[in-house]
Amino acid sequence: MTLSVSPITAATTQVYPPAFHIMLKPRGAICNLGCEYCYFLSKEQLYPASDFRMTDDLLETVTREYIAAQQVPEVTFGWQGGEPTLMGLPFFRRAVALQAQYRRPGMKITNALQTNGTLLDDEWCQFFKEHGFLIGLSIDGPRNLHDRYRVDKGGGPTFDRVIRGLACLKRHQVDFNVLTTVHAGNADHGLAVYRFLRDQVGARFIQFIPIVERDTPPPGRTPPSLAGKGVGGLGVTDRSVTARQYGDFLSAIFDEWVRRDVGRVFVQIFDVALAAWAGYRPGLCVFEETCGLALALEHNGDLYACDHFVEPAYLLGNIREQPLIELVASDRQRAFGQAKRDKLPRYCRACQVRFVCNGGCPKNRLIETPDGEPGLNYLCAGYRAFFSHIADPMRFMAAQLASGQPPANVMGYMARRDAELARGFATAGRNDPCPCGSGRKFKDCHGRLR
């Protein structure tokens, strides 16, 4: 994103980003569920004795300053938690009223709210529909996979309550997408998860978020160094997805999606990959070369560098005491964002899929490269395998875009390629090169499956 001198303070030399995003947490870490892998629940201990409720005056401050700082025609307010619906409907009615009050002429304002869905009812969904909220619903797959870790405070299952919330969203025709975490409980069932989300949930926009859960230190403290653990080493809990599992999970889903669902189901990481293959920026902070333009605002006005770095070392300040835009454009925040690129190991810089991966999220750079350099992403092997696996159809779709044709043409391309491979498999000898082009003998590649 190009930086510019903001007209708000054009008389100064301070350089401001024309746009940025804040994850608003009006209830802080407070949630009605107790998902076992949730990294944010422990953040409650950063604010002892707090009531964890954003006040009306703070809501007005952040609304006014957030809108004023954006030099783009569309601004999105992103509400998360914890569980943001615990604030109650009056809070959000006040929020949209303030947005209307401070919106500049010609500016479009949208709202996105991430929820576990268990508290949704007709009143909530009527409000969402009336005000055009996009709802992100957290669901981890079919009942047995969802209930593995997404449990309530008593450890009980939550699947049925989430499905009731989903039914309410559908009844009121509220736009929604699905956020699915990938963890030890569902990572080996990629196709089952995808088909459930597509066919039973009716999801048309899906995000897959890998759970990489560190062996956590006391809340609010930077995790200890994992130097010396090595690729594939320790440092994460047994609930975490492994790099290989994550790569296999995504590859299995992609293989079905690219043959039947292109243009019908949109998977965030597939869209990001296509953008990169087409020569554009990935468009998602995890895969951007630098970061720092997606921050987190706590219930009391504390602004943190990122939602995954809500800890004292990454506290930029409080918007009650310093203007929001100054905190966002501060030298500390700029250094935080640039470090994503500047601290990339040599191993990553030479990688053939760096153009789409860019080393992944800094929060997961937990291990060492094969030659002992720190800062390698825990998921590196999975990313490399997945992005290499999808390279050929991605190149085809990028070429279609460049020629003004729909990427969905890839489904016909894959059907023709599959037919050619099937003919090759039928005639290949055990010691012949595999027709798939892997370079291995047929008996050691696709021949093993026959």
Please explain how this structure is put together.
- The protein has helices at residues 56-69, 89-102, 122-130, 143-146, 159-171, 190-201, 243-260, 268-277, 324-328, 331-342, 346-349, 354-357, 380-389, 391-402, 410-427, and strands spanning 21-24, 74-79, 108-115, 134-138, 176-182, 205-210, 266-267, 294-297, 302-304, 315-318, 367-368, 374-376.
- Helix 2 links the parallel strand 2 and strand 3.
- Helix 1 (56-69) runs parallel beside helix 2 (89-102) and helix 7 (243-260) runs parallel beside helix 13 (380-389).
- Residues 1-12 and 218-234 have low confidence and may be disordered.
- It has 450 residues and is of the alpha/beta class.
- The protein has a ten-stranded mixed sheet. A two-stranded antiparallel ribbon has the order 11-12.
Q: Tell me, what's the shape?
A: globular
Which percent bin holds the helix content? 25-40%
Report mean pLDDT, rounded to a whole number: 92
Put simply, the count of helices is: 15
Q: What composes the largest sheet?
A: 10 strands, mixed
Instruction: Kindly name the structural category.
Output: alpha/beta
pLDDT under 50 segments (min length 5)? Answer: 1-12, 218-234
Number of strands: 12
Proportion of strand residues = 5-15%
Secondary-structure topology with pairs:
Elements: E1 21-24, H1 56-69, E2 74-79, H2 89-102, E3 108-115, H3 122-130, E4 134-138, H4 143-146, H5 159-171, E5 176-182, H6 190-201, E6 205-210, H7 243-260, E7 266-267, H8 268-277, E8 294-297, E9 302-304, E10 315-318, H9 324-328, H10 331-342, H11 346-349, H12 354-357, E11 367-368, E12 374-376, H13 380-389, H14 391-402, H15 410-427
Parallel strand pairs: 1-2, 1-8, 2-3, 3-4, 4-5, 5-6, 6-7
Antiparallel strand pairs: 8-9, 9-10, 11-12
Helix pairs in contact: 1-2, 7-13, 8-14
